[in-house]
Amino acid sequence: MARAQVHFAGKHVLITGGSGGIGLAVARRLVDARAGVTLAARRSGPLEAAAEELRRRSSQARVRTLAVDVADRAAVDRALAGELAEQPLDVLVNGAGIAAPAEFVDADPADLEAQMATNYFGAVWTSRAVVPHFLERGAGQIVNIGSTASLIGVYGYSGYTPAKFALYGFSEVLRAELAPRGIDVTIVMPGSTRTPMLEQELRVAPPQTRRIMESTRILSADAVAASLLRGVARRRFEVIPGLDVSLSARAYRLAPRLGRAILDREARSATRR
Fold this sequence. Notes:
alpha/beta; Rossmann fold; seven-stranded parallel sheet; 11 helices; 9 strands
């Protein structure tokens, strides 16, 4: 972690979805590395609780909070304009995300729209607000937290996976446009990660989805955060935390027919139960 500590020391990082899960795990490590953080999320209560935890973690922690719904473009524009006027930014971490697993025929249309609005357009709106600031400064980093669902379609994720696929494509375009201008883009694609969101997913997901998720190793949020920060410090475009998850994702890319056959077998096994 030494390289990441040096890379982030003295910088300021805005993290959407920063009140819990992977976002808060990233913030903890940033505070330890002597970076300042702005935590952004929809609800002020969890935000303030997360900020207080970070301040207790380090008496010198520089922690700000921003209550905003990233799916609301106008609200993002207002909130980020105020934030950037008060606090210059070095890194944007787009970590806000929601999931509502269900078979497509049963999925609530409102849930399908909400997942695209938060998981994809949330990153688009925050990036759109921040990129001019980075261009003016001639430096900056954008980190999009995707998922292995950015690469692989999994049973029960007809709302979540398309948004994460779109986030991957968005990251590719941002990298192509911003790299020549000195701005780095990273997309982080963890597999299943032990967070409150995952616990909720497992409670409501179809049995076929649960079987597939439980057949893979579940990472800790801290392990994902450590991998994310190492990858960003090394200016990598793609980061897939966990060697086994990384190898599986890369194998799927090389042999997608085999990968789909394995996923289909898991789904059929759960269906027969």
